[in-house]
Amino acid sequence: MADIKALPFSFPLRRESVALIVIDMQRDFAEPGGFGESLGNDVSYVTAIVSDVKRLIEGFRAVGLPVIHTQECHRPDLSDLPPAKRNRGTPTLRIGDVGPMGRILISGEPGTAILPELAPIDGEIVIEKPGKGAFYATPLGETLKARGIEQLVFAGVTTEVCVQTTMREANDRGYECLLVEEATASYFPEFKQAALDMIRAQGGIVGWTAHLDDVLEAID
Ligand code: TIU
Q1: What is d(CA 93, CA 6) in angstroms, rounded to the nearest whole number?
Q2: How far does residue 63's CA lie from ligand 1's centre (Å)?
Q3: Cα separation of 185 and 152, whole Å?
Q4: Where is the Isochorismatase-like domain (predicted)?
Q5: Ligand 1: nearest atom to the Cα of 23
């Protein structure tokens, strides 16, 4: 295990305190008929990163490092869905409505599931989150503390929404955060680029970015 070649400078990797966190690689964001498409987005930007996210997950598993998964979803009675979130915009299907993969972004529905290629295995933590950030209204903070995790390597979607929100939440809580460029996607390539740039600007104001091969080499 070595430091990770990263921007704006190398990431001081510590084996005993690092985990991979994979944000919201769900059918609802990657497949036609889900939440992402209901908002008018081209989901092929998400499917394009699946093989690289898989390589990253398998790299962490191969060396026995923890993998955490998140899912953006709500309770079936919508009690954790603020009207301001449900009513925003003009989607073709709102959160809680029935679509081709079941109720949109509702816990336990087929569309809410993590893509089968990236599915959690026994022992991996799965955090269901009602917000864009994974710390808000979830046990993530306590779970990380209990396991001594202080460094988070980020993958998932979308770069400027749930990934960046969670990175910012984590950065403010004292975690060292690194985003893997090939393992994150936005429905807007220019937003992905802007998010990468703003995360690592000003001496890593929110954290670090790195390329997949450099992460895999360092953890080996
Ligand atoms: N719409 C969009 O870009 N993202 C989300 O709604 N959720 C996540 O980023 N997971």
Answers
A1: 40
A2: 30
A3: 18
A4: 19-206
A5: 10
Q: How is residue 213 written in tokens?
A: 């091969």
List, as one string, the DSSP characters of 111-149: GGSBPGGG---TT-EEEEESSSSSSTTSSHHHHHHHTT-
Separation of first and last alpha carbons in the chain: 6
Beta carbons within 10 angstroms of residue 12's beta carbon? 12
Asked whether the bond before 159 is cis by omega within 30 degrees of 0, the reply is no
Find, among 14, 3, 29, the residue nearest to 156 by Cα: 29
Question: H helices within 150-188, ranges in order?
Answer: 164-172
What are the backbone angles phi and psi of residue 94, rounded to the nearest 5°? -90, 160
> What is the reported pTM?
0.98
Q: Which two tokens stand for residue 93?
A: 């299907």
Using one digit for the tens of pLDDT, what is the confidence trace for 88-137?
999 999 999 999 999 999 999 999 999 999 999 999 999 999 999 999 99
Q: Which helix (H) or strand (E) holds 154?
A: strand 151-157
Catalytic residue from among 52, 129, 132, 214: 129
CB 187 within 8 A of CB 36: yes
